[in-house]
Amino acid sequence: MVMALDGIKVLDLSRLAPGPHCSMLLADFGADVTLVEAVPGASAKLGTTGVRRSEAAERAAAFNALGRGKKSIALNLKEEEARKIFYRMAEGADVVIEGFRPGVVKRLGVDYDKLSTINPRIIFCSISGFGQTGPYANLVGHDINYIAIGGALGVTGRPGQPPAIPVNLLADFAGGGLTAAFAICLAIIAREKTGRGQYIDVGMSDGVLSLMTSAFSHYFSTGQPIRPGEYLLNGAAPFYNTYRCSDGRWFSIGSIEPHFWENLCRVLGTEDLLPHQFDQAKWPEMIERFAGIFATKTADEWMAVMSQYDICAAPVLEMENVVTNEHNLARGMVIELDSPIGKVKQIGVAPKLSDTPGMPRSTAPLIGQHTDEILGGLGFTAEQIADLRSRGVVG
Asked: What is the DSSP annotation of 92-128?
């Protein structure tokens, strides 16, 4: 089966979520991704190939979806011999991904300026919290900090309450990993036109701000900033909100358009509210009224009712219900992969391409699992590999 990124070779130096998510997306569509990982510590119990093998390690790798479809080589890039190995790998690579703090790859001697002299077609993607330039470039941070600077945290939650902290989706995975994968694919297309690689600077706070484009369009056009729980799309409106049901679960309503609003009111028996959809003075009273109505049925009962009509509605699925939901299963979004510990479940591939679909091909490797294979492909003998491993150059 032909895959969209067949033949694209990626070297992934990253460690935390954004980089591995980026390279997982590329691997799912056929890219040949090699993780360049740190050599395990000298006290690690290594097997004959240098790979840490234990039941816990194999289980962790099997369920590590971010590592699926990839190979692993362990290199101590602080050693000159290891850097030379990396340079040889870079000669035939298309993409390098790194997620260190700005300046680290330069100190290690594996930055874009160095690699582009070895391979002018190389595409080098740096993923960092605040980007490579600007006053915040060298600050440490995590998802919560990047969504704070990017504006997303400031619009979530309820009035007078602390901001609602989402799971690390917006910065790490959307603003970081997904944005980086998109940028890399753009650079691959551009290289077909120019013959040259290029450097990509992905700042996660930039990615978050890009996701906020529509919200800021509202601000720029009206001069009115969006506050938590005071905007139609963040909890102020009764028709775009969540309500607790009789079983303690929650149900979401998104009936913005008038015809959806009309259907909702008829199902709930609140036809008297039809003329007042956008009367913000009445919204608190309407929310309280809706809350009382939704408390009379379970979430599944409400879904059974709502799904018979043209109403934007869905139960708020808890994780255990997400992975058994009939729609998610029908869309192939929960899959099983073979692994050394047996079949394991993972989340499937989101974009459905008709001619070159994505397909996870293996579970994540153990650290250094493919060191011997990769070095052998570069021309190293078994004796040379053993010597490099004994000196901690590779693992």
From this structure: T-SEEEE-SPTTHHHHHT-SHHHHHHH-TT-EEEEEE
**23, 70 contact by CB (below 8 A):** yes
Is 172 a catalytic site residue?
A: yes
Reported as type and span, the H/E element at residue 72 is strand 70-74
Residues comprising the chain, all counted: 395
> Catalytic site residue 327?
no
* Contact partners, residue 90, CB within 8 Å, separation at least 6: 11, 96, 110, 115, 118, 119, 122
Note the pLDDT tens digit of each residue in 71-81.
Answer: 999 999 999 99
Query: Domain containing 246: what range?
Result: 232-326
Catalytic residue selected from 142, 276, 300, 387: 142
Write down the catalytic residue from 12, 28, 111, 172.
Answer: 172
Residue holding tokens 């990017």?
A: 150
Q: How many domains does the chain have?
A: 2
What residues pair up with 96 in beta bridges, in sequence order? 11, 124
The side-by-side arrangement of strands in the sheet containing 95-98 is 70-74, 32-37, 9-12, 95-98, 123-128, 199-203
Q: Using CA atoms, how far apart are residues 13 and 96, in angstroms rounded to an integer?
A: 7
Each residue's pLDDT tens digit, 13-56? 999 999 999 999 999 999 999 999 999 874 344 444 567 678 89
Q: Which of 326, 341, 362 represents a domain boundary (last residue)?
A: 326
